[in-house]
């Protein structure tokens, strides 16, 4: 086990204390649902103080549906009273060092009482070759008082400008303003038309869509129909960017706001839409299927309904940020991670680690709900959120998660991307396929990436690159225009550099994109076409003539020495100087960056079950130091094998660390490996310290097991119990200098003392603490205080006092979107399940 670096910890404490009153983006932020906006200043202050004390960096106000019995306290969105409590929130945030963001609306997506029928989303169907246009009829989902109304037509020529007039007048009289405006995921279902769509199509695509409209319904694979469908999607994508995303971001910046934008779910090119914002934002919805031992996955979560988080979808947001030089990339984090009252900190950390490795560095918890102080437990809850608020069962230990996230995000935000490969996103090949979403259009959502990403050759290639250890970003047709070529063929966006541009196996390519490839290739860029060259130019107008020119240009580009059609991608990438990181081969997930000092920096997470420790080649082979969040730095042992330098990395499933090039490691201690272990056995004394509904009687155990198996109604207990045991060491004390204690299966958080010395709190897999400094030869007294979830208590609470479920709209549902009923649950294992081992 690694020794604590006390000097590092002290310096970190000083840094955090000195910056307590400054707004931090390194700290995690949280969604903050205002139910009915039935808020008051005193309770706002109380909850902001909780957030600040817990290590949260900011809040994101989202007005939402209300609470039964609080109708008189509801505040209409953007009314003078609403603006006053919003400004109070910002003032208090400044006092406490908390930032404040807000949605440019209520619920989602954009819409409300200021959206007239003419501005509302429209849907077009083709009947007998004619367009039949109707309003979608969709209204804002989960609106707050003052926010109900039709969803805005995202393609309308003046819709966004008219929508924002309401906010102009509101903020004209608001001296205190949020840091950022927010646009939730697209979700304008069925919207596929606007009043001047036919005219815009004619202008942009150079032919009359109405004459070809019947081809949108073609299912025979007619080549012309495919081209028309591509043109149709291309027009939607352009209008969405020009009339929806850019006007909103331009308005926000003119008013002094940053923008956070969730582009996913839309029919546009996500890379272009994310880039339009100051802070691109993705979403982690549900639980990833990590294979690490001991990680629980809610069995009620429906993959068929919601899919699972996917790092490739997340990389669309981080790629856009990397190419355009944006420091922050955010994520809506923890949506439906598990059922209410069942989420542990140990389930949250792996999802955040996955986000970090996908390039995300500005975590927004989903989320916290404003709840009056007098409400008590469980308080007001939002139907789809993990509860990160004051009434959460992990609120006591919430600061530990936040300290971890802050330390990681500081390093991630202060470093630069260092990816070798640029992968072109051939969205036209997607548009050539049958849409699986409503309205006959492709919606590029984070929930079901299989519908638009994974089945394409682009998706399969990206999965391979991720699995095989390549560092890469995605690039759109528009983004290629910003690249120049430097020495040795290096591609430069002005903010990030790449050694190779890879074109996945694609059929369709715009002639404008081919011209960009010609420009880059002629300047010396290294371009690799995976397996084949594109064979068809997009655009139905004058297609035959343009196809001939396209064929000639493709041949010319492919004949250049620095351009290859690859049948052995690994070999061709290696020939271009691309590094294939061995970390992935070992079963580890990583992101590679450049530190502020220009040194190689890796964040590495063990999210699997194939690696415990071993020799690994990092990059081109350099001396590396390991920096474990909140523990300090140590130099790693190295060796040279076949001319390559390797490091010895000890990283158990569930652990994560930073690795950095070490220019001079003379003053950094070496880390030692772990080789032996034995189980601590005997009689465990169990006493219950605090919790609900009442304290069970003490117990004695010779075998560790869930306390729910004990008598005295312990199966309903939610709280804290102390486990105590006395043991002697085996062998001389000296061999245990670097020893640690592995707690085995912990449900859910364990604070550990040994011989009266605090060893710290274990809150994530693997549940381990350093113990060498506290051990003695005989009579070691080990005390472990374990806190469980609130799920078991809610089984009783829902029988006795179900009146807390009093919300409008969807009220409160379970993870299957059925009426919430905890009385049907079986008791969840709780306490110290072990085995507890001494590792040395």
From TrEMBL:
Pfam families (alphabetical): Glyco_hydro_106 (PF17132)
Sorted UniProt keywords: Hydrolase, Signal
Keyword match Lyase: no
PANTHER family hit by this protein: DNA-BINDING PROTEIN (PUTATIVE SECRETED PROTEIN)-RELATED, SECRETED PROTEIN
InterPro entries xrefs: Galactose-bd-like_sf, Ulvan_degrading_GH
One of the record's GO molecular function terms: hydrolase activity
Full protein name: Glycosyl hydrolase family 2
Signal sequence extent: 1-20
